[in-house]
Structure formats: C-alpha cells, structure tokens
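User: Teach me something about this protein's shape.
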Amino acid sequence: MRSYVTEENPRFMMIKRELGALQGELTKLEQGNHVAGTPEVPIGQLPQAGLDYIRKYRDVRYHEALYEILAKQYEAARLDEAKAGPLVQVIDKAVVPERKSWPPRTILVSVTSCLAFFASSFWILFKNSPVKIV
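Assistant: First, the predicted structure itself:
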C-alpha cells in the first residue's frame, strides 16, 4: 500500500495498527507467553498439543464406535425379545387327584401316636421308679 497511498491515509493507518497487533500476538505465541484458557497454543508446545489432540480424538472415536456397537446389540436384543413367545407355556391343565398317593397320613399318624404313647409311658415309669440307673 505504501507504493500507491500516503502515510496519512486512514485505511493505511488502520491496516498498519492491525499489522502491529498481529505481530505482537505472534511474538507472544513464539515466546510461549499466552493466557490460560485461550485457544492459542504457543509454538513451543505445538507437538505436545498435537499429541493431546490426537489422543483425545482417538478416545472420542473409540467411545463413538463402542456406543454404536452397543446400540446395535441393544436393538437386536430388543427385537429378539419382542419375537420370542411367552417363557411359560401351559401344556395340560392340572387335575386334582382322587386320593393322595404319598405319604399315607393315617399310617403316619397312628405310628407316631403309638410311639409317643410308649415313649411317655417309659419316661413316667423310669422317672418315678426307686431304682436309679447310673
């Protein structure tokens, strides 16, 4: 612009200020003096920043692929469950038997009653007997 405009041209002065500000930013980046939280990375830290970016990008892609696989498996399982019939299927209705086959209650009750009678009789006899068994 210096070849066709004068130094007092307002457009030339504005571009000159912008150029000075950009050169100041460039020197800050080259020196590594940058404010934390800004997206600019100092030139000295570019390889490390590139590695961090690649690692984080790889993690994101891994989790995206994992999510897609799990989503497909979930959909397949959901469709299989919808297709499957009921888990319990009634083949024949239950019929109440005419008489119980086992255990015979009358025999059990009578044998137990007899054993209880004899056990209590022996207990009473030995408890009140004068002979002590040592």
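Now, about its shape. The mean pLDDT is 83. The chain is about 65% helix and 0% strand. If you'd like, I can walk through any region in more detail.
User: That's plenty for now, thanks!
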